[in-house]
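Running this now, will post back.
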Amino acid sequence: MHCALYTAGTCRSCQWLDKPYSRQLADKQQDLSQLLDGLPVGEWCEPVTGVESAFRNKAKMVVSGSVERPLLGMLHRDGTPVDLCECPLYPARFPAVFTVLKSFIARAGLTPYNVARKRGELKFLLLTESQKEGGMMLRFVLRSESKLAQLRAALPWLQQQLPQLKVISANIQPVHMAILEGDVEIPLTAQQALEEEFNRVPLFIRPQSFFQTNPQVAAALYATAREWVSSLNIASMWDLFCGVGGFGLHCATAEMRLTGIEISAEAIACARESAARLGLKNVEFQALDSTGFATGKGEVPDLVLVNPPRRGIGTELCEYLSRMAPQTILYSSCNAQTMAKDLTHLPDYHIERVQLFDMFPHTAHYEVMALLSRR
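Update: finished.
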């Protein structure tokens, strides 16, 4: 992938861009092998890849510059701004949207936030695109609600220019720290969820719910989970850290009892909407802490699927799963280091198969999924 920003040295977020993609993939596979060294693996599946550019469905843009000439991108540690509107990781449709958004910032009088001076209102723009119909979700991250009236007044012009914007909201983040968003989300459109679809499974994205940023590889990840689970005799399943329900909804059948647990109420609302659309009756999604839920239950499902954040599932949940002893654990991870550490706390399980999913080309990061069976 060619990137003028990388060549010029103004952006080095893709640390491995100088490395041929085949070498990137080999290095990631080697890293995973080293992390799992000493843990017997029954089958190493071939890595799953997607396209090398234009794969991101979400842009997280720091807003800097002036209200008349805003910049959308990032800030270096010394405060120097870099405009990333031409970043080749974004689809070809994004740059034209960014151009309109820059005009809108000036039209609405949304002064970019100045970190050094702690002045201004508009901190970030978060843009997400659905692969299903090309609809988009736009979030304005503001320091306060003082510019909300101006934003609302100018919004009809923006919607006329960009009819693909289906969901628009304002997030209030008053803290002077590098925090992407705050707790308060104010909807600015009647529609508050963006519909997506992977492998004929409807999924929904709400402003404060997590969703994968590489839809092509994410769809392959979910499809693989469904394939692995379908080969087993599973009557009941827990989907812990379930997010919007992607894994559980792919694996569920009409007869299976599925319980999905996620601390984000926004994500749970999405999962419930998907389950209703699919007509699944034996499904329950709850907005709870996954570790607290699991360790407080006496029942033992046939399969526990975990898809934790980068910190992993932790010692407490590992030890409880060992005592609870489900026959199968399916572990999906965005951080192979913490997954490998967790697996050492599951000594009664062995790895039936493991597969790398290259969700983040040109970086050292990757997703991995492992199927664990009780010895």
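The mean pLDDT is 96. More later if anyone needs it.
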